[in-house]
Amino acid sequence: xxxxxxxxxxxxxxxSSPDLQENLNTAGRLxxxxxxxxxxxxxxxxxxxxxxxxxxxxxxxxxxFGSGPIQEQLAxxxxxxxxxxxAGTIPLESKDPSKVLNTMLAFDTAGQHIGRYDKIHLFGxxxxxxxxxxxxxxxxxxxxxxxxxxxxxxxWSFGLSICYDLRFPELYRAMSAVDCHxxxxxxxxxxxxxxxxILLRARAIENQCYVLASAQGGIHLNQRRTxxxxxxxxxxxxxxxxxxxxxxxxSGVLSKEKLNEVRSQxxxxxxxxx
Length: 274
What we know:
Distance between the termini: 42 Å
Structural class: alpha/beta
CATH topology: Nitrilase/N-carbamoyl-D-aminoacid amidohydrolase
Largest sheet: 6 strands, mixed
CATH class: Alpha Beta
Number of domains: 1
């Protein structure tokens, strides 16, 4: 078999509800559609399995790492569709019984767990009409996460980060050698309209890699409004795909040739001084 220097990837966008099974059904349907479109690696958004009516709802459905109905369903999605699946975030047990870890899990084509990242930076934002304080129900992770896969004899590396992490470039610089950064998110409409695209493109440009973002995109039953705009961005910072709002998916191709072209023509990563 010849070595393939491309990988077809897809990013799913949802408008998740407080109903766990409904969200899993939606995720399964969209994964199937993206697979039929040829995707070999598929990403789900942050909180894909539940956007609760209150922040503590996710604590109620948290699972121990390695078992539970959410993780079992994700493994089945990956195996049944024969794809690599990077599952947005799910609530896992933490040391504090009143909190969860907001965790991204990756599965291979056999449904085996192959990667994990616990969200490090916890969102805090307050205006006269909005208030978010993730630290009240989430325990912060402590280490970056990198996912490595081999597909058609070609190695691919992915930096794992989640939503608010996007504002901390030092995290991405620590993983700058990867081929693609995967960023599931539930960006608020308020912050997303001003900052989402420019931050995603900046992370792609400064690290000369692809960025694949999977978003929540609409008005949820808890009246929270998320920005949407799931995107694929190339190493030059060009937006290759964008889904403004609503559920669906975007897809595109990662190319080793494009990565090598950008990094050889403008070898900024090799020019670093600090």
